[in-house]
Design goal:
9 helices, single chain, mainly alpha, two-stranded antiparallel ribbon, about 180 residues
Amino acid sequence: MATKKKKGLPTIVDSYEDLQILCEEFAKRGHKITPTGAWDAIAERFIRKNNARHYWKLLRFNWYLQQRMSDIETTFKKSGIRKLFKRRKNETLDKHKKRFYKEIGKKNKRIRSVERVVVDPKFSQHYNQYNPNKQFSNLEEVVQLNKMICDSRYDKDFNIKNHDNLGSGHTGQIIIHLLR
């Protein structure tokens, strides 16, 4: 919602005509913006997330989470894994994460799961589909995917709405946070 200059009250833009009027007011002040340009800027920022790079990134993250879950499931039995993901009473998320990593041990490291994802033939097949002009390199992709998983800029991409099909019955934002 835009705000009026004098009173500071919000201006409600319900239709394309209201957007045109608002853009004309901006043009009078020296800001050259068209209604189509405004709509494209809004759509690019909030609505249109359908570019190939975004899908490729989410696909890699989803494969990583599935691989990480299967690596942990092979180490623990089904009954033991449920206790592993449950938070204890009065336990903070940081303490839960430390306990989780201590219990899964040193054999279940993130980099090993990333390596298993990248070595998979479907990864190279999809890589060539999304990046037809680049040469595939296992080492570069392992490093790149590991950096992306660790980076806090990709926190919004590790949301449960993007990865609700982990296939193991364990879905939840805390579990994704722990697997990351």
